[in-house]
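During the no-cost extension, the postdoctoral fellow (Dr. R.K.) reprocessed legacy sequence entries with the updated structure-token encoder. One reprocessed record is reproduced below for audit purposes.
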Amino acid sequence: MEFSLTDLEAIVAARAGSGGSDSWTAKLVAGGQSRAAKKLGEEAVETVIAAIEGDAKALAAESADLLYHLLVVLHVGGVPLSDVLAELQRRTAQSGIAEKASRPAG
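Re-encoded structure tokens follow.
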């Protein structure tokens, strides 16, 4: 069976609720959205650096960190991955240019 983001979402939820002092996920969640989002931002920067440097192995590793931290932020925000996937599906039903043009200005 292939590992999926849905599997990771379930792991994040389980660890977030564990309250374990040895769980990085529980510590991030306990720190609130500000802490989780800050860590997500750090991982995004590290992913960009790996991409610019052309280091495929680092890019894969940093992308994994980025996805994990995104799922933590979504969990803390009460947004299920299925909502994000539904939004992606909605957006891919039309061209990217048309989709962007349909967004409210601002």
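The chain is about 75% helix and 0% strand. The mean pLDDT is 93. The remaining legacy entries will be reprocessed before the final report is submitted.
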